[in-house]
């Protein structure tokens, strides 16, 4: 029970933080719950299927080179996981009447991502223990939130734009870019000190996420 609480605590802290940042019109709690559960169930299922499929079309050897780690980080892990979240935001949340202001893109993207992160974190923490829980609480879980905010920022703009497809894909691409960069520096840990790049990319993502939140708060109720 202790490990379970440690695994889910950072997820719900982030959810509460984003919920409170939605200053003008709170989203229906039931819809938020559904979005979270879709992230926890459907996105995980989609990711699992795509991982199995990718292992057949893009098999990688046991000893990865730097280039192969790059492919794995950006075109396997980041692409699959962010696409699985994007699908839920695009075809479930973005079509709802409650999605009626730009900030809602951030809210729903974070809910999906935190659903995904909750399941992933439980799997890692229950096998890795308290130390893994503490490390991931300040790294992997905030990273998932950061990717979601960057994607949700553009998907929030897309809802009220004539360039919906373009803006949606920009959001997806940005999430893949930051997710891929974060993972890549961790994957090539055989290069001494290179892991610092993961934290640099995370810090940059957090700074951009803070700006994205502020911009959508300022533009709330404006169709952009």
From TrEMBL:
Membrane-crossing residue ranges in chain numbering: 5-20, 32-53, 73-93, 105-127, 133-155, 167-188, 194-213
Domain of life: Bacteria
Pfam families: PrsW-protease (PF13367)
GO BP terms: proteolysis
Presence of keyword Protein biosynthesis: no
Principal location listed in the UniProt entry: membrane
Keywords: Cell membrane, Hydrolase, Membrane, Protease, Transmembrane, Transmembrane helix
Location of the protein in the cell: Cell membrane
Record's keyword annotation contains S-adenosyl-L-methionine: no
One term of GO molecular function: peptidase activity
Membrane topology: Multi-pass membrane protein
Family listed: Belongs to the protease PrsW family.
Protein name: Protease PrsW
Natural source organism: Gilvirhabdus luticola
């Amino acid at each position: 029970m202790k490990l379970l609480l440690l695994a889910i605590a950072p997820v719900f802290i982030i959810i509460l933080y984003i919920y409170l940042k939605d200053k003008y019109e709170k989203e229906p709690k039931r819809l938020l719950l559904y979005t979270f559960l879709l992230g926890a169930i459907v996105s995980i299922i989609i990711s699992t299927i795509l991982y199995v499929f990718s292992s057949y079309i893009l098999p990688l050897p046991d000893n990865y080179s730097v280039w192969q780690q790059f492919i794995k980080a950006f075109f396997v892990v980041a692409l699959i996981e962010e696409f699985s979240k994007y699908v839920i935001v695009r075809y479930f949340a973005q079509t709802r009447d409650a999605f009626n202001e730009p900030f809602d893109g951030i809210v729903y993207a974070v809910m999906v991502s935190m659903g995904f992160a909750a399941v992933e974190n439980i799997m890692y923490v229950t096998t890795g223990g308290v130390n893994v829980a503490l490390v991931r609480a300040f790294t992997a879980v905030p990273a998932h939130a950061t990717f979601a905010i960057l994607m949700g920022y553009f998907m929030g703009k897309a809802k009220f734009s004539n360039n919906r497809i373009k803006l949606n894909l920009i959001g997806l691409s940005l999430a893949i870019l930051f997710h891929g960069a974060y993972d890549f520096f961790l994957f090539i840990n055989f290069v001494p000190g290179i892991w610092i790049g993961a934290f640099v990319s995370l810090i940059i993502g957090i700074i951009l996420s803070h700006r994205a939140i502020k911009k959508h708060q300022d533009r709330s109720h404006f169709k952009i």
